[in-house]
Specification:
Helix 2 packs across helix 3 (197-209). The chain is an alpha+beta fold and 487 residues long. It has 7 helices and 23 strands. It has helices at residues 5-16, 30-39, 197-209, 253-259, 299-316, 332-338, 408-412, and strands at 43-45, 49-54, 71-79, 97-98, 107-113, 119-132, 159-165, 170-171, 178-179, 187-194, 217-221, 240-251, 266-271, 321-324, 326-328, 349-353, 373-379, 389-395, 402-407, 428-434, 444-446, 458-464, 482-486. The strands form 4 sheets. Strands 2, 3, 4, 6, 7, 8 and 12 form a 7-stranded antiparallel β-sheet that branches. Strands 1, 5, 9, 10, 11 and 13 form a 6-stranded mixed β-sheet that branches. Strands 14-23-17-20-21 form a 5-stranded mixed β-sheet, with helices on one face.
């Protein structure tokens, strides 16, 4: 999820989740870490937590505006500073916390807890959310929105919503964790977010003193050349940020439900005395390369996939339209340096749009005709080990509400008509979307499950994490889907 609905829905969660303000027990890491930080002279503000929202079958605003309904989104409730009381004085209430947040150069955020149980995909990212025009170096390069694109309103006229990823997303492959010294048989991770290398060092030392080894510690550096944090919170010219987590199906439902209970992941704001820690900005980190060095299909397998497309055409006839999909590319640096909107891009993901031919706008599909069908042809990136997770979803073009989806598990349960000796194996697939599927409609998904009226819809494909690289796949290495449209 990348748009305004995220904040509307999480705000609703905050207002209803009174249990967020429950004082945590002193068991586990909390007490020794608090002691170690306070021994350094730090003030700790809380509570801060990450709360999950399951978009499967939900009409919540979070799950509109093109949310991925195969994903549980985790929104960060970040403790504020300023007039908020310290942990030693009182628990901080819900209204004292923020969904987007600022951070000063003498502060850090610390997220800690167990990694989730076995899931298809888990990721945590931080984005630069708003920037003041005084600190946008190349405002003349601002990219204007395309027709139909929407952007959340800024908090003030002289601020720009950029929502651009900072660095890599921490995921199943890249998140450091180690045995939890306070809970035998469990794992523990800690994530430090700071703009000051000296502050990060102090927090790391406190974690070490509390029994957490470096093997479990991760750092999200807010680089000096890309962000402005200042010394005061709040600061009308400082950047604001947000943190989002994602957990993708399939997973063991009961285990993830337990994991999502408030308090599993704890989030503290750690503040040292202003000007007591020398400023030492981080450099801009080099991101992981998306390239594995090998194409998903080439040679014989590539030719066989083209033959597979001919096979589908022979079965259903020549389509009225044939649409080749295109990957949407995001440039974090460009958005941050020009104030352009980056849609909360997740660097773990490759976003694949099914656009109208010759256009950068999503194509609209209509299944109202008696013979109407949309057939999607592609290869199973998960089976070929070029993705941990991928899915297709169809949406209402006006509201962005999800109308349905399918993912790689739906493909792997079907048997497709391929030659026995085809080297493309059973990785090639086709799925047809119809208003209602008949008994004769092979590999068919019905879009009428939510009622008789089936509106026009858009199609979006998301592909998460190439396990060979630990980050989002490279579009150039993948076989992107093809869409046959029969009016």
């Amino acid at each position: 999820m990348t748009r305004r609905g995220l904040f509307v829905a999480i705000a609703a969660l905050v207002l209803t989740a009174i249990l967020f303000s429950v004082w945590e027990s002193s068991a586990g890491l909390r007490a020794p870490l608090l002691d170690a930080l306070q021994a350094q002279g730090a003030t700790v503000y809380r509570p801060g937590l990450m709360s999950g929202k399951d978009c499967r079958g939900s009409d919540d605003p979070l799950c509109s505006n093109f949310a991925n309904t195969a994903v549980i989104y985790l929104g960060a409730i970040v403790p504020c500073a300023g007039e908020c009381a310290a942990i030693s004085e009182r628990p901080i209430g819900i209204l004292d916390s923020a969904l987007t947040w600022q951070i000063a150069e003498h502060e850090a955020l610390v997220l800690f807890g167990p990694p989730p149980p076995s899931t298809t995909h888990f990721g945590i990212q931080v984005t630069a959310y708003e920037r003041h025009k005084a600190h946008i170096p190349r405002l003349a390069g601002y990219r204007r929105l395309q027709p139909g694109e929407k952007i959340p309103p800024a908090s003030a006229p002289d601020r720009y919503v950029v929502d651009a990823a900072i660095g890599d997303t921490f995921n199943n492959h890249t998140l450091n964790s180690a045995p939890d010294p306070f809970n035998e048989g469990s794992e523990l991770f800690a994530l430090i977010i700071s703009a000051n290398r000296n502050v990060e060092t102090r927090v790391r030392q406190a974690l070490n003193a509390a029994g957490v080894t470096d093997a479990a510690i991760n750092t999200l550096a807010l680089p000096g050349d890309h962000v402005f944090v200042g010394n005061d919170i709040p600061d009308r010219e400082a950047d604001s940020f947000r943190m989002v987590g994602r957990i993708a199906r399939p997973f063991e439902e009961a285990a993830v439900k337990r994991y999502l209970r408030p308090g599993t992941l704890k989030l503290w704001r750690v503040a040292y005395e202003k000007n007591s820690v020398p400023a030492a900005p981080f450099a801009v980190a080099e991101q992981r390369s998306r390239y594995s060095g090998r194409a998903e299909l080439n040679g014989r397998a590539g030719r066989e996939f083209l033959q597979f497309q001919k096979h589908v055409k022979h079965r259903f006839g020549e389509p009225d339209r044939m649409i080749h999909s295109s990957a949407r590319q995001y440039d974090d640096r460009h958005c941050i340096e020009t104030g352009s909107y980056c849609w909360g891009n997740n660097n773990d993901a490759l976003y694949v749009d099914i656009n109208a031919p010759g256009s950068e706008q999503l194509a609209k599909f209509d299944l109202s005709g008696p013979g109407s069908r949309v057939i999607i042809l592609g290869v199973d990136h998960q089976r070929l080990r070029y993705a941990d997770f991928w899915n297709f979803a169809w949406f209402d073009p006006e509201s962005g509400a999800s109308l349905g989806s399918f993912d790689f598990t739906d493909i792997q349960r079907r048997r497709f008509e391929l030659p026995a000796d085809a080297s493309v194996g059973n990785s090639a697939y086709f799925i047809q979307l119809r208003r209602r599927c008949g008994a004769e409609d092979a590999h068919c998904l019905s879009l009428s499950d939510r009622g008789d009226a089936v509106p026009e819809f858009n199609l979006v494909n998301r592909i998460y994490v190439n396990p060979q690289t630990g980050t989002g796949p490279a579009a150039e290495e993948l076989v992107l889907p093809v869409v046959f449209v029969y009016d």
